[in-house]
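Forwarding the complex inputs:
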Amino acid sequence: MSLNVSNLTVHHGAICAVSQVSIAVPTGKLAAIIGANGAGKTTLLRTLSGLKTPTNGSIMWKGEKIAGIKPEALVRRGISHVSEGKSVIPELTVRENLELGAIWRRNAKESKESIDQVVSIFPRLGERLQQRADTLSGGERQMLAIGRAIMSKPQLLLLDEPSLGLAPLVIEQIFQTIRDLTTSMNLTVLLVEQNAMGALKIADLGIVLNLGKVVAMNHAQVLIDDPAVRAAYLGY
Amino acid sequence: MQKILETFLIGLSTGSIYALMSIALVLVWRSTRVVNFAQAGQAMLSTYIGFEIATRTEIFWLGLLFAIAAGALLGAGVDYFFMRVLFKHAVSGPAAVVAPVIATLGLLGLIRSIVGLIWGGEFKSIKAPASTDGFTIGEKTIPFSPLNLLIIVTVFVILISLAIIFQRTNLGLSLRASAYAPEIAQLAGIKTARTRTIGWAIAGGVGGVAGMLVTSSNFLSPYSLDLLLVFGFIAAVIGGLESMVGSVVGALILGIALTFILNYVGTSLVFIGGFVVLIVVLLVKPDGIMAKGRARRA
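Prediction (whole assembly, two chains):
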Protein backbone atom coordinates (compact mmCIF):
# COMPACT_ATOMS: atom_id res chain seq x y z
CA MET A 1 0.00 0.00 0.00
CA SER A 2 1.55 3.30 -0.93
CA LEU A 3 -1.08 5.44 0.73
CA ASN A 4 -2.44 4.36 4.07
CA VAL A 5 -4.83 6.53 6.01
CA SER A 6 -6.03 5.36 9.38
CA ASN A 7 -8.57 6.82 11.77
CA LEU A 8 -8.22 10.25 10.22
CA THR A 9 -10.35 12.95 11.84
CA VAL A 10 -10.40 16.56 10.64
CA HIS A 11 -12.30 19.52 12.07
CA HIS A 12 -13.36 22.88 10.63
CA GLY A 13 -13.49 24.81 13.87
CA ALA A 14 -16.07 22.90 15.93
CA ILE A 15 -17.49 20.97 12.97
CA CYS A 16 -16.16 17.52 12.32
CA ALA A 17 -15.73 17.24 8.53
CA VAL A 18 -13.88 13.93 8.35
CA SER A 19 -14.44 11.33 11.02
CA GLN A 20 -12.21 8.30 11.65
CA VAL A 21 -11.60 7.65 7.99
CA SER A 22 -9.39 4.70 7.12
CA ILE A 23 -8.50 4.03 3.50
CA ALA A 24 -5.68 2.31 1.67
CA VAL A 25 -4.72 2.74 -1.96
CA PRO A 26 -2.07 0.57 -3.63
CA THR A 27 0.56 2.03 -5.95
CA GLY A 28 -0.64 2.54 -9.49
CA LYS A 29 -4.33 2.38 -8.63
CA LEU A 30 -7.03 4.94 -9.22
CA ALA A 31 -9.47 5.40 -6.35
CA ALA A 32 -12.71 7.32 -6.86
CA ILE A 33 -14.11 9.05 -3.79
CA ILE A 34 -17.79 9.75 -4.16
CA GLY A 35 -20.48 11.10 -1.89
CA ALA A 36 -22.95 13.92 -1.47
CA ASN A 37 -22.06 17.58 -0.87
CA GLY A 38 -20.60 18.01 2.59
CA ALA A 39 -19.53 14.39 2.85
CA GLY A 40 -15.96 15.49 3.58
CA LYS A 41 -14.41 14.58 0.23
CA THR A 42 -12.67 17.90 -0.35
CA THR A 43 -11.53 18.13 3.27
CA LEU A 44 -10.01 14.66 2.99
CA LEU A 45 -8.00 15.68 -0.09
CA ARG A 46 -6.92 18.98 1.49
CA THR A 47 -5.65 17.09 4.51
CA LEU A 48 -3.72 14.61 2.36
CA SER A 49 -1.96 17.44 0.51
CA GLY A 50 -1.14 19.29 3.73
CA LEU A 51 -3.47 22.25 3.30
CA LYS A 52 -5.33 21.15 6.44
CA THR A 53 -3.95 19.66 9.62
CA PRO A 54 -5.82 16.66 11.00
CA THR A 55 -7.11 16.57 14.56
CA ASN A 56 -6.37 12.91 14.87
CA GLY A 57 -5.26 9.81 13.01
CA SER A 58 -2.33 9.08 10.75
CA ILE A 59 -1.43 9.33 7.08
CA MET A 60 1.32 7.06 5.81
CA TRP A 61 2.80 7.75 2.39
CA LYS A 62 5.50 5.38 1.12
CA GLY A 63 6.07 4.22 4.68
CA GLU A 64 6.44 7.67 6.23
CA LYS A 65 4.09 9.62 8.44
CA ILE A 66 3.10 12.81 6.62
CA ALA A 67 0.17 14.23 8.62
CA GLY A 68 0.79 17.89 9.42
CA ILE A 69 3.59 18.39 6.87
CA LYS A 70 3.11 21.50 4.72
CA PRO A 71 2.05 21.26 1.05
CA GLU A 72 5.28 22.80 -0.25
CA ALA A 73 7.19 19.96 1.42
CA LEU A 74 4.77 17.26 0.31
CA VAL A 75 5.13 18.29 -3.36
CA ARG A 76 8.79 17.42 -2.97
CA ARG A 77 7.75 13.97 -1.77
CA GLY A 78 5.66 13.37 -4.87
CA ILE A 79 2.20 14.51 -3.79
CA SER A 80 0.40 16.82 -6.23
CA HIS A 81 -3.02 18.31 -5.54
CA VAL A 82 -5.30 19.86 -8.15
CA SER A 83 -7.73 21.75 -5.95
CA GLU A 84 -11.40 22.34 -6.65
CA GLY A 85 -12.48 24.68 -9.43
CA LYS A 86 -9.85 24.59 -12.20
CA SER A 87 -6.82 25.40 -10.16
CA VAL A 88 -4.93 27.62 -12.56
CA ILE A 89 -3.76 31.21 -12.13
CA PRO A 90 -5.74 33.31 -14.65
CA GLU A 91 -3.24 36.21 -14.67
CA LEU A 92 -0.36 34.00 -15.77
CA THR A 93 0.22 32.56 -19.22
CA VAL A 94 -0.31 28.87 -19.93
CA ARG A 95 3.46 28.36 -20.03
CA GLU A 96 3.93 30.16 -16.70
CA ASN A 97 1.20 28.08 -15.09
CA LEU A 98 3.02 24.96 -16.24
CA GLU A 99 6.45 26.24 -15.18
CA LEU A 100 4.98 26.84 -11.75
CA GLY A 101 4.49 23.11 -11.32
CA ALA A 102 8.19 22.45 -11.79
CA ILE A 103 9.48 25.55 -10.02
CA TRP A 104 10.64 23.75 -6.89
CA ARG A 105 12.91 21.50 -8.96
CA ARG A 106 15.01 24.52 -9.97
CA ASN A 107 16.03 22.84 -13.20
CA ALA A 108 15.20 24.73 -16.39
CA LYS A 109 16.09 21.81 -18.65
CA GLU A 110 13.85 19.34 -16.82
CA SER A 111 11.11 21.93 -16.75
CA LYS A 112 11.25 22.27 -20.55
CA GLU A 113 11.15 18.50 -20.97
CA SER A 114 8.13 18.31 -18.67
CA ILE A 115 6.36 21.01 -20.70
CA ASP A 116 6.95 18.93 -23.85
CA GLN A 117 5.53 15.92 -22.05
CA VAL A 118 2.40 17.84 -20.94
CA VAL A 119 1.94 19.23 -24.46
CA SER A 120 2.12 15.71 -25.89
CA ILE A 121 -0.67 14.71 -23.49
CA PHE A 122 -2.74 17.87 -24.10
CA PRO A 123 -1.86 19.18 -27.60
CA ARG A 124 -4.45 21.99 -27.19
CA LEU A 125 -2.26 23.53 -24.50
CA GLY A 126 0.71 23.51 -26.86
CA GLU A 127 -1.08 25.88 -29.23
CA ARG A 128 -1.85 28.24 -26.38
CA LEU A 129 1.40 28.38 -24.38
CA GLN A 130 1.77 32.16 -24.67
CA GLN A 131 -1.87 33.00 -23.94
CA ARG A 132 -3.11 34.06 -20.53
CA ALA A 133 -4.88 31.24 -18.71
CA ASP A 134 -8.09 33.26 -18.46
CA THR A 135 -8.50 33.06 -22.25
CA LEU A 136 -8.87 29.26 -22.05
CA SER A 137 -12.13 27.33 -22.11
CA GLY A 138 -13.23 25.43 -19.01
CA GLY A 139 -11.96 22.13 -20.35
CA GLU A 140 -8.61 23.62 -21.33
CA ARG A 141 -8.24 25.12 -17.87
CA GLN A 142 -8.79 21.72 -16.31
CA MET A 143 -6.18 20.26 -18.67
CA LEU A 144 -3.81 23.03 -17.60
CA ALA A 145 -4.47 22.34 -13.92
CA ILE A 146 -3.73 18.64 -14.39
CA GLY A 147 -0.75 19.54 -16.58
CA ARG A 148 0.64 21.73 -13.81
CA ALA A 149 0.34 18.84 -11.37
CA ILE A 150 2.16 16.53 -13.79
CA MET A 151 4.96 19.09 -14.09
CA SER A 152 5.88 18.30 -10.47
CA LYS A 153 6.50 14.65 -11.41
CA PRO A 154 3.98 13.30 -8.91
CA GLN A 155 3.57 9.78 -7.63
CA LEU A 156 0.33 10.56 -5.81
CA LEU A 157 -2.16 12.72 -7.69
CA LEU A 158 -5.10 14.24 -5.81
CA LEU A 159 -7.86 15.50 -8.11
CA ASP A 160 -10.79 17.47 -6.74
CA GLU A 161 -13.81 17.43 -9.07
CA PRO A 162 -12.09 17.82 -12.42
CA SER A 163 -15.48 17.48 -14.14
CA LEU A 164 -17.00 20.51 -12.40
CA GLY A 165 -18.81 22.78 -14.85
CA LEU A 166 -17.63 20.97 -17.99
CA ALA A 167 -19.64 19.70 -20.95
CA PRO A 168 -20.33 15.94 -21.04
CA LEU A 169 -18.06 15.31 -24.00
CA VAL A 170 -15.17 17.19 -22.35
CA ILE A 171 -15.74 15.30 -19.08
CA GLU A 172 -15.39 12.04 -20.95
CA GLN A 173 -12.08 13.16 -22.46
CA ILE A 174 -10.71 14.36 -19.13
CA PHE A 175 -11.70 11.12 -17.39
CA GLN A 176 -10.11 9.06 -20.15
CA THR A 177 -6.90 11.08 -19.84
CA ILE A 178 -6.84 10.57 -16.07
CA ARG A 179 -7.24 6.82 -16.62
CA ASP A 180 -4.44 6.76 -19.22
CA LEU A 181 -2.08 8.81 -17.05
CA THR A 182 -2.63 6.52 -14.07
CA THR A 183 -1.58 3.53 -16.11
CA SER A 184 1.20 5.06 -18.20
CA MET A 185 2.90 6.94 -15.36
CA ASN A 186 2.10 4.32 -12.71
CA LEU A 187 0.43 7.00 -10.58
CA THR A 188 -1.58 6.52 -7.46
CA VAL A 189 -4.68 8.68 -7.93
CA LEU A 190 -7.44 9.86 -5.62
CA LEU A 191 -10.27 11.27 -7.69
CA VAL A 192 -12.99 13.14 -5.81
CA GLU A 193 -16.14 13.42 -7.90
CA GLN A 194 -19.80 14.42 -7.84
CA ASN A 195 -20.07 12.67 -11.17
CA ALA A 196 -20.08 9.31 -9.40
CA MET A 197 -20.80 7.05 -12.36
CA GLY A 198 -18.16 8.61 -14.59
CA ALA A 199 -15.56 8.38 -11.86
CA LEU A 200 -16.34 4.78 -10.84
CA LYS A 201 -16.21 3.66 -14.47
CA ILE A 202 -12.53 4.61 -14.80
CA ALA A 203 -11.55 3.75 -11.23
CA ASP A 204 -10.03 0.61 -9.77
CA LEU A 205 -11.37 1.30 -6.30
CA GLY A 206 -14.44 3.12 -5.09
CA ILE A 207 -14.80 4.84 -1.74
CA VAL A 208 -18.15 6.23 -0.62
CA LEU A 209 -18.14 8.96 2.01
CA ASN A 210 -21.18 10.12 3.92
CA LEU A 211 -21.15 12.78 6.65
CA GLY A 212 -17.41 12.42 7.05
CA LYS A 213 -17.39 8.64 7.36
CA VAL A 214 -16.48 5.86 4.94
CA VAL A 215 -19.71 3.95 4.28
CA ALA A 216 -18.44 1.70 1.48
CA MET A 217 -15.07 0.77 0.01
CA ASN A 218 -14.64 -1.87 -2.67
CA HIS A 219 -13.66 -2.56 -6.25
CA ALA A 220 -15.24 0.11 -8.41
CA GLN A 221 -17.20 -2.43 -10.43
CA VAL A 222 -18.63 -3.98 -7.26
CA LEU A 223 -19.91 -0.57 -6.17
CA ILE A 224 -21.43 0.08 -9.58
CA ASP A 225 -23.32 -3.19 -9.26
CA ASP A 226 -24.36 -2.58 -5.65
CA PRO A 227 -28.11 -1.71 -5.59
CA ALA A 228 -27.77 0.45 -2.46
CA VAL A 229 -24.93 2.53 -3.95
CA ARG A 230 -26.80 2.76 -7.24
CA ALA A 231 -29.91 4.08 -5.56
CA ALA A 232 -28.09 6.57 -3.35
CA TYR A 233 -25.32 7.88 -5.64
CA LEU A 234 -25.74 6.75 -9.21
CA GLY A 235 -29.37 7.74 -9.56
CA TYR A 236 -30.88 4.63 -11.04
CA MET B 1 4.79 75.26 -27.38
CA GLN B 2 8.19 75.13 -25.73
CA LYS B 3 6.68 75.63 -22.29
CA ILE B 4 4.34 72.69 -22.89
CA LEU B 5 7.29 70.44 -23.76
CA GLU B 6 9.28 71.61 -20.74
CA THR B 7 6.33 71.02 -18.44
CA PHE B 8 5.85 67.58 -19.91
CA LEU B 9 9.50 66.62 -19.36
CA ILE B 10 9.57 67.84 -15.77
CA GLY B 11 6.27 66.08 -15.18
CA LEU B 12 7.84 62.90 -16.50
CA SER B 13 10.71 63.25 -14.04
CA THR B 14 8.34 63.92 -11.12
CA GLY B 15 6.02 61.14 -12.18
CA SER B 16 8.83 58.63 -12.47
CA ILE B 17 9.62 59.08 -8.77
CA TYR B 18 5.92 58.63 -7.93
CA ALA B 19 6.12 55.44 -9.99
CA LEU B 20 8.69 53.94 -7.63
CA MET B 21 6.63 54.74 -4.53
CA SER B 22 3.55 53.46 -6.30
CA ILE B 23 5.22 50.15 -7.17
CA ALA B 24 6.37 49.77 -3.58
CA LEU B 25 2.76 50.10 -2.41
CA VAL B 26 1.34 47.82 -5.12
CA LEU B 27 3.86 45.06 -4.41
CA VAL B 28 2.85 44.97 -0.76
CA TRP B 29 -0.86 45.38 -1.45
CA ARG B 30 -1.12 42.52 -3.87
CA SER B 31 0.92 40.08 -1.80
CA THR B 32 -0.40 40.99 1.63
CA ARG B 33 -3.62 42.99 1.11
CA VAL B 34 -2.25 45.77 3.28
CA VAL B 35 -1.95 49.44 2.34
CA ASN B 36 1.47 50.03 3.80
CA PHE B 37 1.45 53.54 5.28
CA ALA B 38 4.75 52.73 6.95
CA GLN B 39 6.31 52.81 3.47
CA ALA B 40 6.79 56.58 3.84
CA GLY B 41 8.66 55.95 7.09
CA GLN B 42 10.69 53.06 5.71
CA ALA B 43 11.70 55.14 2.69
CA MET B 44 12.49 58.11 4.94
CA LEU B 45 14.72 56.13 7.31
CA SER B 46 16.43 54.51 4.31
CA THR B 47 17.00 57.96 2.83
CA TYR B 48 18.54 59.23 6.10
CA ILE B 49 20.95 56.30 5.98
CA GLY B 50 21.66 57.04 2.31
CA PHE B 51 22.09 60.71 3.24
CA GLU B 52 24.70 59.85 5.89
CA ILE B 53 26.70 57.71 3.45
CA ALA B 54 26.37 60.19 0.56
CA THR B 55 27.41 63.10 2.77
CA ARG B 56 30.39 61.34 4.34
CA THR B 57 31.75 59.76 1.17
CA GLU B 58 30.49 62.52 -1.15
CA ILE B 59 29.36 59.75 -3.49
CA PHE B 60 25.62 59.96 -4.15
CA TRP B 61 25.45 56.53 -5.77
CA LEU B 62 27.02 54.83 -2.75
CA GLY B 63 24.36 56.52 -0.63
CA LEU B 64 21.71 55.24 -3.03
CA LEU B 65 23.05 51.68 -2.71
CA PHE B 66 22.92 51.89 1.08
CA ALA B 67 19.41 53.36 0.90
CA ILE B 68 18.31 50.39 -1.24
CA ALA B 69 19.90 47.90 1.15
CA ALA B 70 18.44 49.63 4.21
CA GLY B 71 15.01 49.83 2.55
CA ALA B 72 15.10 46.14 1.66
CA LEU B 73 16.11 45.12 5.19
CA LEU B 74 13.44 47.34 6.72
CA GLY B 75 10.77 46.01 4.37
CA ALA B 76 11.67 42.40 5.08
CA GLY B 77 11.80 43.20 8.79
CA VAL B 78 8.35 44.79 8.83
CA ASP B 79 6.85 41.73 7.17
CA TYR B 80 8.79 39.23 9.23
CA PHE B 81 8.43 40.77 12.67
CA PHE B 82 5.06 42.53 12.37
CA MET B 83 2.88 41.17 9.58
CA ARG B 84 3.59 37.47 10.20
CA VAL B 85 2.87 37.86 13.90
CA LEU B 86 -0.26 39.92 13.24
CA PHE B 87 -1.65 37.42 10.75
CA LYS B 88 -1.00 34.61 13.19
CA HIS B 89 -3.04 36.31 15.91
CA ALA B 90 -5.75 38.01 13.87
CA VAL B 91 -6.84 35.25 11.52
CA SER B 92 -10.31 36.39 10.53
CA GLY B 93 -13.00 39.01 11.08
CA PRO B 94 -12.70 42.79 11.02
CA ALA B 95 -9.55 42.72 13.15
CA ALA B 96 -7.69 40.77 10.47
CA VAL B 97 -8.51 43.45 7.90
CA VAL B 98 -7.94 46.54 10.01
CA ALA B 99 -5.15 45.51 12.38
CA PRO B 100 -2.34 45.34 9.79
CA VAL B 101 -3.21 48.76 8.33
CA ILE B 102 -3.34 50.35 11.78
CA ALA B 103 -0.06 48.62 12.55
CA THR B 104 1.58 50.25 9.52
CA LEU B 105 0.31 53.66 10.69
CA GLY B 106 1.80 52.95 14.11
CA LEU B 107 5.08 51.95 12.53
CA LEU B 108 5.13 55.17 10.52
CA GLY B 109 4.89 57.15 13.77
CA LEU B 110 7.50 54.97 15.42
CA ILE B 111 10.02 55.35 12.61
CA ARG B 112 9.42 59.11 12.58
CA SER B 113 10.19 59.36 16.29
CA ILE B 114 13.32 57.28 15.94
CA VAL B 115 14.55 59.41 13.05
CA GLY B 116 13.72 62.55 15.03
CA LEU B 117 15.75 61.25 17.98
CA ILE B 118 18.78 60.44 15.88
CA TRP B 119 18.86 63.22 13.29
CA GLY B 120 16.60 65.91 14.80
CA GLY B 121 13.80 67.66 12.98
CA GLU B 122 15.81 70.18 10.94
CA PHE B 123 16.00 69.99 7.15
CA LYS B 124 18.92 68.13 5.63
CA SER B 125 19.94 68.15 2.02
CA ILE B 126 21.84 65.74 -0.16
CA LYS B 127 24.23 67.02 -2.78
CA ALA B 128 22.55 66.25 -6.09
CA PRO B 129 24.41 63.79 -8.35
CA ALA B 130 23.91 66.09 -11.35
CA SER B 131 23.40 69.79 -11.97
CA THR B 132 20.03 71.23 -11.03
CA ASP B 133 20.56 74.15 -13.44
CA GLY B 134 18.49 73.74 -16.55
CA PHE B 135 19.88 72.67 -19.89
CA THR B 136 20.85 75.54 -22.17
CA ILE B 137 19.62 75.27 -25.72
CA GLY B 138 21.16 77.98 -27.90
CA GLU B 139 20.63 81.18 -25.91
CA LYS B 140 17.83 79.96 -23.69
CA THR B 141 18.01 78.03 -20.42
CA ILE B 142 15.08 75.70 -19.83
CA PRO B 143 13.89 74.46 -16.41
CA PHE B 144 14.54 70.81 -17.32
CA SER B 145 17.90 69.97 -15.73
CA PRO B 146 20.49 67.20 -16.00
CA LEU B 147 19.22 66.02 -12.60
CA ASN B 148 15.72 65.62 -14.03
CA LEU B 149 17.16 63.59 -16.87
CA LEU B 150 19.23 61.48 -14.50
CA ILE B 151 16.15 60.76 -12.39
CA ILE B 152 14.23 59.57 -15.44
CA VAL B 153 17.13 57.36 -16.55
CA THR B 154 17.63 55.91 -13.05
CA VAL B 155 13.96 55.08 -12.67
CA PHE B 156 13.91 53.59 -16.16
CA VAL B 157 16.83 51.31 -15.30
CA ILE B 158 15.11 50.21 -12.10
CA LEU B 159 11.81 49.55 -13.87
CA ILE B 160 13.57 47.46 -16.52
CA SER B 161 15.37 45.47 -13.81
CA LEU B 162 12.08 44.87 -12.01
CA ALA B 163 10.41 43.81 -15.26
CA ILE B 164 13.19 41.29 -15.90
CA ILE B 165 13.01 39.93 -12.36
CA PHE B 166 9.23 39.60 -12.44
CA GLN B 167 8.80 38.31 -15.99
CA ARG B 168 11.92 36.28 -16.63
CA THR B 169 13.04 34.64 -13.40
CA ASN B 170 11.74 31.88 -11.17
CA LEU B 171 11.74 34.32 -8.27
CA GLY B 172 9.45 36.62 -10.25
CA LEU B 173 7.11 33.77 -11.11
CA SER B 174 7.02 32.76 -7.44
CA LEU B 175 6.28 36.34 -6.40
CA ARG B 176 3.44 36.69 -8.90
CA ALA B 177 1.95 33.27 -8.19
CA SER B 178 2.08 33.81 -4.42
CA ALA B 179 0.38 37.18 -4.81
CA TYR B 180 -2.36 36.07 -7.20
CA ALA B 181 -3.15 32.64 -5.76
CA PRO B 182 -1.27 31.77 -2.56
CA GLU B 183 -2.87 28.35 -2.25
CA ILE B 184 -2.00 27.24 -5.77
CA ALA B 185 1.51 28.60 -5.29
CA GLN B 186 1.86 26.59 -2.11
CA LEU B 187 0.57 23.45 -3.82
CA ALA B 188 3.18 24.03 -6.52
CA GLY B 189 5.86 23.87 -3.85
CA ILE B 190 6.54 27.58 -3.34
CA LYS B 191 7.40 28.72 0.18
CA THR B 192 4.84 31.50 0.13
CA ALA B 193 5.69 33.15 3.46
CA ARG B 194 9.34 33.52 2.50
CA THR B 195 8.39 34.71 -0.97
CA ARG B 196 6.16 37.39 0.54
CA THR B 197 8.99 38.64 2.72
CA ILE B 198 11.19 38.91 -0.39
CA GLY B 199 8.39 40.95 -2.01
CA TRP B 200 8.38 43.33 0.95
CA ALA B 201 12.16 43.62 0.66
CA ILE B 202 11.95 44.55 -3.03
CA ALA B 203 9.21 47.09 -2.23
CA GLY B 204 11.36 48.55 0.55
CA GLY B 205 14.41 48.84 -1.69
CA VAL B 206 12.40 50.57 -4.41
CA GLY B 207 10.97 52.94 -1.76
CA GLY B 208 14.52 53.77 -0.69
CA VAL B 209 15.40 54.80 -4.25
CA ALA B 210 12.27 56.98 -4.41
CA GLY B 211 13.29 58.71 -1.18
CA MET B 212 16.85 59.38 -2.36
CA LEU B 213 15.71 60.73 -5.73
CA VAL B 214 13.10 63.06 -4.23
CA THR B 215 15.60 64.30 -1.69
CA SER B 216 18.25 65.01 -4.35
CA SER B 217 16.24 68.06 -5.42
CA ASN B 218 14.56 68.76 -2.11
CA PHE B 219 15.05 68.75 1.65
CA LEU B 220 14.96 65.75 3.93
CA SER B 221 12.99 65.84 7.18
CA PRO B 222 10.98 63.30 9.16
CA TYR B 223 7.92 64.48 7.24
CA SER B 224 9.40 65.16 3.81
CA LEU B 225 8.22 61.95 2.16
CA ASP B 226 4.57 62.11 3.27
CA LEU B 227 3.46 63.82 0.10
CA LEU B 228 5.31 61.20 -1.94
CA LEU B 229 3.34 58.48 -0.13
CA VAL B 230 0.06 60.25 -0.90
CA PHE B 231 0.89 60.74 -4.57
CA GLY B 232 2.33 57.23 -4.86
CA PHE B 233 -0.89 55.87 -3.41
CA ILE B 234 -3.06 57.94 -5.76
CA ALA B 235 -0.99 56.65 -8.68
CA ALA B 236 -1.43 53.07 -7.46
CA VAL B 237 -5.21 53.54 -7.26
CA ILE B 238 -5.25 55.04 -10.75
CA GLY B 239 -3.41 51.93 -11.92
CA GLY B 240 -5.91 49.66 -10.17
CA LEU B 241 -3.76 48.75 -7.11
CA GLU B 242 -2.90 45.33 -8.57
CA SER B 243 -0.83 46.06 -11.63
CA MET B 244 2.76 47.27 -11.60
CA VAL B 245 2.48 48.51 -15.17
CA GLY B 246 -0.77 50.28 -14.27
CA SER B 247 0.84 51.98 -11.31
CA VAL B 248 3.70 53.25 -13.46
CA VAL B 249 1.29 54.61 -16.06
CA GLY B 250 -0.82 56.13 -13.27
CA ALA B 251 2.24 57.75 -11.73
CA LEU B 252 3.39 59.28 -15.02
CA ILE B 253 -0.10 60.64 -15.74
CA LEU B 254 -0.28 62.07 -12.23
CA GLY B 255 3.21 63.58 -12.36
CA ILE B 256 2.57 65.24 -15.71
CA ALA B 257 -0.91 66.46 -14.71
CA LEU B 258 0.37 67.97 -11.47
CA THR B 259 3.29 69.69 -13.19
CA PHE B 260 0.89 71.25 -15.68
CA ILE B 261 -1.24 72.51 -12.80
CA LEU B 262 1.90 73.84 -11.11
CA ASN B 263 3.12 75.68 -14.21
CA TYR B 264 -0.19 76.92 -15.58
CA VAL B 265 -2.45 77.35 -12.55
CA GLY B 266 -0.32 77.74 -9.46
CA THR B 267 1.35 76.02 -6.54
CA SER B 268 -1.65 76.14 -4.24
CA LEU B 269 -3.72 73.83 -6.42
CA VAL B 270 -1.17 71.01 -6.85
CA PHE B 271 -2.22 69.04 -3.79
CA ILE B 272 -5.92 69.43 -4.58
CA GLY B 273 -5.15 68.55 -8.19
CA GLY B 274 -3.86 65.15 -7.11
CA PHE B 275 -7.16 64.35 -5.47
CA VAL B 276 -9.18 65.69 -8.38
CA VAL B 277 -7.31 63.29 -10.69
CA LEU B 278 -8.02 60.48 -8.23
CA ILE B 279 -11.73 61.27 -7.98
CA VAL B 280 -12.15 61.53 -11.74
CA VAL B 281 -10.45 58.16 -12.26
CA LEU B 282 -12.50 56.53 -9.50
CA LEU B 283 -15.72 57.85 -11.02
CA VAL B 284 -14.88 56.89 -14.58
CA LYS B 285 -12.79 53.74 -14.09
CA PRO B 286 -13.09 52.60 -10.47
CA ASP B 287 -10.98 49.47 -11.06
CA GLY B 288 -8.15 51.56 -12.44
CA ILE B 289 -7.08 52.39 -15.96
CA MET B 290 -5.75 48.87 -16.64
CA ALA B 291 -9.05 47.13 -15.81
CA LYS B 292 -10.63 45.35 -18.73
CA GLY B 293 -14.12 45.28 -17.30
CA ARG B 294 -14.09 41.83 -15.74
CA ALA B 295 -13.68 40.60 -12.20
CA ARG B 296 -10.15 39.51 -11.39
CA ARG B 297 -10.93 36.69 -9.04
CA ALA B 298 -13.51 34.00 -9.52
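The first helix of chain B runs from residue 2 to 32.
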